[in-house]
Amino acid sequence: MIEKKKIIKFLDLGKQPLANSFLEKKNLNNEEFFYNLSIGFNPNNFLVSILNPANPKKQYTNKYAHRASQSKTMRKKFKETSIKLKNRFKPKITLEIGSNDGAFIKNFNKKKCVAVEPCKNLAVITKLLGYRTYDKFWDRNLSNYIKKKYGNINLIFSANTISHIPNTKETFDSIESILSNDGVLVIEDPYIGNVLRLNSYDQFYDEHVYIFSILSLSNLAKKSGLRIFDCEKIDNHGGSMRYYLCKINSKFKETAKLRSNLNEEYLLKFNKISTYKKFSKRIIKSKKKLINILKNLKNKNENIISYGATYKSTTVFNYCKINKNYLDCIIDTTINKQNKYSPGMHIPIISPEKGMTNKVNYAFLGAWNFNKEIFQKEKLFFQRGGKFITHIPYPRIIGKKKINNENYKLFK
Ligand code: TMP
After folding, report:
1. Measured from the CB, is residue 410 less than 6 Å from ligand 1?
2. pTM to 2 decimal places
3. Is the model's pLDDT at 283 over the cut of 60?
4. 332 lines ligand 1 (CB under 6 A)
5. How far is the CA of 104 from the centre of ligand 1 (A)?
6. Model confidence over 345-372: pLDDT tens digits?
7. Domain 48-270, CATH
8. What pLDDT sits at residue 404?
9. Domain 290-405, CATH class in plain words
10. Helix (H) or strand (E) holding 258
């Protein structure tokens, strides 16, 4: 019998609030929920996970803020993905797990798909459009119910959802039992390769219970009778991997792309704790350097704001204790984030029209994964001498002259 080794903690990101718990002014003095965000590595299955995941019922409520369809980039990407999957697999019936506001499933014929979304405020959007949407958490019961009603499913798609569900065994068992024999499961989630290369420790927040590698996801899937046969690196959400899985005895052959990406994972030692310990050291340095940059600028009375009230920036600000002493405000185009306050550090969030004034000299890139779009948009800011601050892949200032060098390969 293999002795069960313990999960090894390698990173402590301190006391953190829930990443999307933006506060209204009237609640600023209420007690806020904090938990300790620690990250660990399991030497048995090579899985990287947060050590004390929150209760999903507290996270995915009828007040869930993220709306995939509000991003032009995501609408375009989901449309392209749906075309690609329809052409390659020609599914008779498709199921989406975690359909959010329908950004992906809206590209399918209403009669040929089923959607699952536990946040009722989001599920109602596709329901009203006539899509069969179940506002429930994905589990064994729901899988059995859908199977009884619609039969086996040929294509299951799930973007930025599987990594959010603590119980991977039940999740994959329930998928395996509903998937047709030649069916395909396609998963997209932030990739550990990008986190390690970009030092993007801010990919760790309460919703990202797991940051998968091919190695770790293979091990989890295998336990439920599934295997990965293909994968693709994609640039969504700061660098993700798209995994294609099927039943263990299915017809699909492992692709050369899967083998080469898997080889790369062995080469880069994603299966060794030493890799994650080195990463942790880089993150401690990153924190010190970012605080130093901000302190030096504040000593010179510079006006600094943050660009994008992202979940990722909740992790950065609470880990580095970056508050209103450093940042005047956070600007964000999302209306339901505006006029609120950032979780934990209580930095005011306002519209770009109000916040991006001529007085602003520096802007921290909270939404660093949209850097190209933002640099394009902010040409005038650069022209008048404005500069960005980023911590990706290491803390530094980016001015007009450096912008051309900024096409660093974020997502190679
Ligand atoms: P996300 O990384 O979780 O998708 O969040 C990105 C956030 O950044 C979202 O709230 C919208 C905001 N944002 C802006 O405010 N201005 C921009 O130009 C871009 C690209 C994003």
Report:
1. no
2. 0.95
3. yes
4. yes
5. 19
6. 999 999 999 999 999 999 999 999 989 8
7. 3.40.50.150
8. 55
9. alpha beta
10. helix 256-267
